[in-house]
Write a structure and sequence with these properties.
418 residues, Phosphorylase Kinase, domain 1, Transferase(Phosphotransferase), domain 1, 2 domains, 3-stranded antiparallel β-sheet, 11 helices, 16 strands, isopeptide bond, allosteric enzyme, ATP binding, Prot_kinase_dom, Protein kinase domain-containing protein
Length: 418
């Protein structure tokens, strides 16, 4: 049925198959991207549920290097907080990446759904991200596109771990001009990347700082409708801890974020230094409930993608209900029950990841997350995302812009609205 590809030059990790549907039973489409489609599937021999990234070979012409890079990176990674590449199949017309399925949804949506949320919760989340990124850095891998929509919960349970997904822009250090290529999502990208200077692992630490900032106030640190002004702010590391949004946040948290969002990469915290900081390793993270303020801002700044992810969320929920997994996620899913999130966007304008020598100045929206609710009767009611770094399989819709009631000095880029 499937045989190992014994080609020289690194092709031995592919399994040849004449028809992938002899190996997997395809279910719903989870998302589509520029040159791939992600489908929920069941492995016929084991019953295990996976996410299959289907890439037509004809669509790979001119993009072979990009997909080979993603595969090369993913094949090296084995970490509890990183979505795994489990297998690779090749047919005459397609390449299939068999990915771990993650079902818990996206980071911000889970926070919004909570009734209680503290600095300590944020600290625990960031610690998991730091551990995973530190692992990557130890392997010489730089993610280069860390952002909230690439952080997914393993399953819908309250204590589920965080998983990092989407390695399409990741690179190994020491591979020539790679580390001087402008890439990433501008709202989370380090100043040296925007300046198109050679850079290092420190770019990931900056991005973690931006994510930590948002986790504690609900809005991003950089914003301007004018791209050139936005880039200026990032290049200068021009951000503030605005009142009243930061009044109840500890000085330790602010110092931690400032150490990661340090303009000079030589002075910026490494993952090891961040993991040793009292806000992560000690007891300085406060236990005061900040849910009301943070969730209000997150709804205003990051909720629009729910409309665009609704179709995919419904498909996953429907399927899990059919499999009677609503209350027991262990079962046939075993240890690989998880659904990578549909990564890149359907939101207008300011949110798509880029990887090019001259920045296109767009970045990608946040996709929603959720637990396993009853099957929603309308798209607006659901928010469980599923993806593998691909665009959601839905038609764009008009969404109301909600003004953000905060000082004009605050800047962000994620939603394209203030």
């Amino acid at each position: 049925m499937a045989s190992e590809n014994g080609q020289s030059g690194g092709g031995s990790w592919k399994k040849n198959v004449d028809d992938i549907k002899k190996v997997f039973e395809f279910k719903e489409v989870l998302g589509t991207g520029a040159f791939s489609e992600v489908v929920m599937a069941r492995e016929k021999t084991t019953g295990k549920m996976v996410a299959v990234k289907c890439i037509p070979k004809k669509a790979l012409k001119g993009k072979e290097t990009s997909i080979e890079n993603e595969i090369a990176v993913l094949r090296k990674i084995k970490h509890e907080n990183i979505v795994a590449l489990e297998d690779i199949y090749e047919s005459p017309n397609h390449l299939y990446l068999i990915m771990q399925l993650v079902s818990g949804g996206e980071l911000f949506d889970r926070i919004v759904e909570k009734g209680f949320y503290t600095e300590m919760d944020a600290s625990r989340l960031i610690k998991q991200v730091l551990n995973a990124v530190n692992y990557l850095h130890d392997m010489g891998i730089v993610h280069r596109d860390l952002k909230p929509e690439n952080l997914l919960y393993y399953n819908p349970h309250d204590e589920a771990k965080i998983m990092i997904s989407d390695f399409g822009l990741s690179k190994m250090e020491g591979t020539g001009d790679v580390m001087a290529t402008a890439c990433g999502t501008p709202g989370y990208v380090a100043p040296e990347v925007l300046a198109q200077k050679p850079y290092s692992k420190a770019v990931d630490c900056w991005s973690i700082g931006v994510i930590a900032y948002i986790l504690l106030c609900g809005y991003p640190p950089f914003y301007d409708e004018n791209d050139s002004k936005l880039f200026e702010q990032i290049l200068k590391a021009d951000y503030e801890f605005d009142a009243p949004y930061w009044d109840d946040i500890s000085d330790s948290a602010k110092q931690f974020i400032s150490s990661l969002m340090e303009k000079d990469p030589e002075k910026r915290f490494t993952c090891d230094q961040a993991l040793a900081h009292p806000w992560i390793a000690g007891d300085t993270a406060l236990c005061k409930n900040i849910h009301e303020s943070v969730s209000r801002q997150m709804r205003k700044n990051f909720a629009k993608s729910k409309w665009r992810q609704a179709f995919n969320a419904t498909a996953v929920i429907r399927h899990m209900r059919r499999l009677q997994l609503g209350s027991s996620l262990g079962g046939s899913f075993g240890s690989s029950m998880s659904v990578d999130q549909p990564g890149q966007n359907s939101m207008p304008a300011k949110s798509m990841s880029v990887d090019c020598a001259s920045l296109s100045r767009k970045d990608g929206p946040l996709q929603p997350l959720s637990t396993l609710p009853p099957l929603p009767s309308s798209p607006a009611a659901c928010s469980a995302p599923v993806s593998i770094g691909v665009e959601p399989h839905v038609e764009p819709e008009a969404v109301l812009e909600v003004p953000r009631p905060r000082p004009s000095t605050v800047t962000t880029i994620h939603t394209g609205t203030k």
